[in-house]
Amino acid sequence: MPEEAKVSKKKKIVAAVVLVAIAVALIVGIVLTDPLYTSPESISEVMEDAVLHEDNKVSLFGFPVNPSVISGIAVTIAILLFAVIVRVFALPRFKDIPGKFQLFIETVVGLFDGLAKKNSPHRNGFLGAYIFAAGVYIFVGTMFELVGIPVETTSGISVTLPAPLADINGAIALGFLSYFVILSGGVVGAGLRGVGRTLKDFSLPISMSFRLFGALLSGMLVTELVYYYLALSFVLPVIVGVLFTVLHALIQTYVLVMLTSMFYGEVSEPYVKKDKKHKSAEKHGRLHNKRPVVQEV
User: Fold this and answer.
1) How many angstroms separate the CA atoms of 190 and 193, rounded?
2) 286 is a domain residue
3) CA 129/CA 106 separation, integer angstroms
4) CA–centroid distance for 68 within its chain
5) Where do the DSSP E strands lie in the chain?
6) Contact by Cβ (8 Å): 221, 49
7) Cβ–Cβ contacts within 10 Å for residue 86, how many?
């Protein structure tokens, strides 16, 4: 057997032994530490508080607030700070032949701008800016959950900051904000007709809000369930947390941005008033088409 083959076989054996040793160590750790683990809250209380946020509140300038409020403030400050840094230091250095960072920024901005122009060809300047801001906030806010910043609640329990939209209030606020943006597009683009087009879809902000809240909450509840039981809290939370968070960040960003741009383009389409001659011509054409065709023998 050649020397290279022997070395490769030895490496495979060593890797297999290391993996088996790690698995055995995890099993031993689970068995030894599971009886020692006690939680001050039951699993039902943990799930209920993840939805309602009634007990585990944090102090903000002396006022008890939901942890998602702190998350929303932190995400907003981070996005604004990044935008200022890009505008002051990076944007003046952009070149005709883009580098990697410039190409990334232009690709992201072009993606949202193209989506706005495609779904709302008549009026898309403000729409592109809004869906870009909303999409970035949803994506960064959802990914913020992976940072795992711990905070102490007013009751003395340590919790990690959740995604801002995992709170029903944040999801409702973003849903209604998107609805008002759609309404403004209808007013500017088509006047009172645009208002009528928007108001007929009165359930749109509710569906947007609960779609965001339900999707993000489901991922958070699964993660909380995995972390609650110590036997499941080895290795598995990394896979579950990252998988659910990344998928929800991408899917919910795309869904809200697409819905907002489509409805905005629909209600902002200008109304074209047809004159009497055009209506008469259309009516004459319809009557002409309805006449029976007589075939010559």
Assistant:
1) 6
2) no
3) 14
4) 15
5) 58-60, 63-65, 150-152, 158-160
6) no
7) 14
pLDDT digits (tens, 9 = 90+) for 11-31: 778 777 777 777 666 556 555
Supply the Cα-derived Rg of the chain in whole angstroms.
28
pLDDT single digits (tens) 151-188: 888 878 777 888 888 787 888 888 889 989 988 888 88
**Residue 126 backbone dihedrals phi, psi, to 5 degrees:** -70, -35
- How far from the centroid of its chain's Cα atoms is residue 266's Cα? 23
User: Is residue 192 assigned to a domain?
Assistant: yes
Q: How far, in Å, CA of 128 to CA of 114, rounded?
A: 8
Quote the number of domains for the chain.
1
The pairs formed by 252-255 with CB atoms below 8 angstroms and a separation of 24 or more are 252/138, 252/142, 252/165, 252/211, 252/212, 252/215, 252/216, 253/135, 253/138, 253/139, 253/142, 255/211
For residue 1, tell me if it sits in a domain: no
